[in-house]
Each structure stands twice: as C-alpha cells, then as structure tokens.
Write a structure and sequence with these properties.
Strand 1 and strand 2 form a beta hairpin. With about 450 residues, the chain is mainly alpha-helical. The chain has one domain. It contains 18 helices and two strands. Helix 3 crosses helix 5, helix 8 packs antiparallel against helix 10 and helix 12 runs antiparallel to helix 14.
C-alpha cells in the first residue's frame, strides 16, 4: 500500500503542468506539423511542393488565415484538399475546444483544474458554463456549416455535377464559417461576382462566424435586444456600424473604378461592395481583384483587417470589443468623465488597460514583420508589403497578389506572423486574466502625456 502511494506521488511530481496559453500554442503547433507532413505526402499534391510551401499552407490553414503560395485547387489532390479543410476546422474551433470535447466524451464532468483551463481558454466567467459553451461552439459550427452546404450545393449544381457541387459546398462552408479564406478556384470568388446566392451565402457565413460564439449563444438564450448582455449589444452594434460604414464608403470609392465595380450593374455593385466591406474582418475571399482597388479603399481595408471580428470567434484582428473600448475610452477622456459606461454598465479600468495592451502588442507585431519584409523584399511596393503583413498578423488572408512571389525567408516571416497573430492577443488576454497583486504601494508620479 505504501509503495503504491509513493508511486502515485512520484507520478504526480513527474507530471508536466502547462498553462492554457502554452497548451494552446503547442496544440496549434502540433496541428501545423501534422498538416505539413500530410501535405508533403506524394498523393496529397500534384508536382513539386517544397517544404516551405507545405508548411506555409498548413500554417495558413490552422491559423485560419487563407494566404497561399500555390493554387490550392490545382496543386492539391482530393486528399490534400480534405487535409486543408480539416486543418481549417481545427484551427477555427480551436485546439482547446477539441481537447475539452474529448475530455467530456470520456467523462461527463470536468475536474476543477480542467474547468479553470476551459474558463481561461474560452473566456467564460462561470466555471459551470465552460463545458456548455464548448458544446455550443461545436453545435453552432455544425449547424451553420450544414445550412451553408445545402444552399451552396443547390447554387453550384447549376454549374457542376452533384459530387463536385457538394464537395465545393462543404469546403467553402467550412472555409467561410471559420473565416479561413481558402478557395479552390484560381481567382477566389471573382468568377461568382454576379452569383448572388453564392456570394451572399458565403458573406453571411463568415459574418456569423466572426460575431463570436458567446454572442450567438446569448442571442439564442435572450431572443430580445433588451435582454442581451452589454457585451453582446456592444459587439453586434459595432459590427453592424462598421459593416454599414465600410459598405457605403467602398461603394462610393470603387463605383468609378474601371478595374473593380465600374463595369458592373447597380445590383452587382451593391453585392460586391457589401462583400468587400465585410470580407476584411478576417475571411480572406475576394470577388474583385484586391490589387486593383484604389489606395483609399486599400487603406480602409487594412484598418478593417486590423480591427477583425468578435472575441471567441473564428475571426482575427485585435477584435471588435478591443477596438470599441479604446474608442470609447478616448471619448470618455475628451468629455472629462470619470467613468466609462456602456449600455448603462460601467467598464472596469483593467478592461481598458487590457485593450490597450492587445492593440500595442498587435501593432508591434505588424511593425516588426513589416520591417523584416522591407529588408527581405526591397523590390516590392511599400503598400503591398504592408498589406501582406497586416493580412498575415491579423489572420485575414487577403493579398495584393505578391504571396506567390515572395522569397522563402519572407514566407517564414509570414508563417511566424500568422502563428503569433493567432496566439498573441489571446495569450496576452489569458496572462492578464490572472491578476498579480503586490502588497507594496508606490507613490504616485505625474507623467506628462501628449
């Protein structure tokens, strides 16, 4: 009996305890490594596929970015395309979601340590709702992807036989809902710029996926605007406002551009202006050539890519909540108000600090990556490299057509940006979620700002 107890103690002492951020990073890294190896298999691709391009594709899929150095539809076999689709799904729902689901399938109740890990990973403040939220993430994904598959299959059966239409529908539903941005067509969705059912369905999928699962569950539970939480109201109103603003501005800017919207009918202009107003939030598809858009539209697109979508969603960027908290903080300061309030609720000061930290970290990540690309790619245009950097760091996937022509070293920089962009703000949030209070109180200092 004593020997058995000692053995248990030794096992307990030798066990490796990883924090949620570390476990999340290792999980995504494992998916990338496995994906790279699978894509390098001879029956996964056609012709030559260098290791750097296999790793780039796997990283882009796992981080649900969508940047690609090859034509996915032509370069990969059916097996390779399925691998990419599975990587997108795993990256979109998150490694921790699958890990917790696996634990739930083995045991109906999570231990306290596992619940705390789930709480920190999916952002729930209630331990009892952690596993409930994870199940909701899986079910919501399955539901919306199934609806998208049905609609897109019907739409594409006008152009392809059932088997091809169904596979395209499944792939694009997964890619769209998870904001993956991967396309099986060489020009993304430009061939379907006048196909309302295809383009609008895909836009709805990536918008819903980018709202955030907690908000979606709150909508289902409350069913009325007045009963929604302040967080849900803030996210929904901000996303609606940004989408409407971007839709009007891009339509105005591109309506006279002969390379984008000018040749289209009024209805097609509206559809594609809407598509490119909402797509920078993280989805990475395009129905017109991004490189042909005006400089003003390009700048607006980069700002929208930086903002991204909702928290605990498949979108990237700094997240809508982070953006609007900083905007409201500035307004509160200009009004000389002592308290930041949202829908008659006060916002704690540490939330503002957290938002500032996330924005600062993401900005520094973009700055460092952009600086590296400027050194490695001196022949490329400044705006093209900046656009590519923001797209990678904010896991969007839009490109001005330079990805395939970048040097291997530049591709590795983008790989690091995509990986860090998927983990950076989240990891920072997890670290901030564990307060470290000091008993030492220091005297206040007056620091001149501005």
């Amino acid at each position: 009996m004593k020997i058995h107890t000692t053995g248990l103690i030794n096992k307990k002492q030798n066990s490796i305890n990883l924090s949620p951020p570390s476990l999340l990073a290792l999980g995504f890294l494992s998916f990338i490594i496995i994906g790279t190896l699978l894509l390098k298999l001879p029956f996964a691709h056609h012709g030559e596929l260098p290791w750097i391009k296999a790793m780039f594709t796997a990283t882009s899929a796992v981080t649900i970015t969508g940047l690609s150095t090859v034509n996915v539809g032509d370069s990969f076999t059916l097996f390779g395309k399925i691998v990419i689709m599975v990587l997108i799904q795993c990256g979109g729902l998150g490694f921790m979601t699958f890990a917790i689901l696996a634990a739930l399938s083995l045991s109906p109740r999570l231990g306290l340590k596992q619940q705390i890990m789930a709480q920190e990973t999916i952002g729930q403040t209630s331990l009892s709702r952690a596993s409930f939220t994870v199940k909701g993430v899986f079910l919501y994904s399955l539901f919306f992807e199934s609806i998208g598959t049905i609609i897109l299959t019907i739409a594409w059966m006008q152009h392809y036989d059932f088997s091809h239409a169904f596979f395209y529908a499944v792939f694009y539903s997964v890619s769209a809902f998870n904001n993956g941005g991967f396309s099986l067509f060489p020009n993304s969705l430009m061939s379907f710029s006048d196909q309302y059912m295809v383009t609008f369905t895909i836009s709805i999928l990536y918008i819903i996926g980018g709202i955030g699962f907690v908000v979606l569950m709150d909508i289902k539970r409350s069913r009325r605007w007045g009963k929604l939480t302040p967080n849900s109201k803030l996210i929904l109103s901000t996303i609606a406002g940004l989408n409407l603003f971007a839709f009007i501005v891009i339509w105005i800017l591109e309506a006279s551009n002969p390379l984008t919207l000018a040749p289209m009918s009024f209805g097609d202009q509206a559809l594609n202006a809407w598509f490119h107003a909402t797509v920078p939030r993280s989805s990475g598809f395009n129905s017109v050539e991004v490189g042909d858009m005006s400089n003003a539209s390009t700048l607006l697109t980069m700002v929208l890519m930086f903002i991204g979508g909702g928290s605990l969603s498949t979108a990237g960027g700094i997240k809508v909540g982070t953006f609007i908290i900083m905007v409201l903080s500035v307004i509160t300061f200009l009004r000389r108000s002592d308290e930041l309030t949202i829908f008659r609720h006060a916002v704690p000061h540490h939330i503002t600090i957290k938002a500032l930290a996330v924005i600062s970290i993401t900005f520094m990540l973009i700055l460092l990556g952009f600086f590296a690309l400027l050194i490695l790619e001196p022949d490329k245009h400044f705006i093209d490299l900046l656009f590519e950097t923001i797209s990678a760091a904010c896991t969007v996937g839009l490109s001005r057509g330079i990805t395939e022509n970048l040097h291997p070293a530049s591709l590795f920089v983008l790989i690091l940006l995509m990986f860090a962009g998927r983990l950076g703000p989240l990891t920072l949030a997890y670290l901030i979620a564990t307060p470290k209070k000091s008993r030492v109180k220091h005297p206040a200092a007056e620091i001149q700002i501005g």
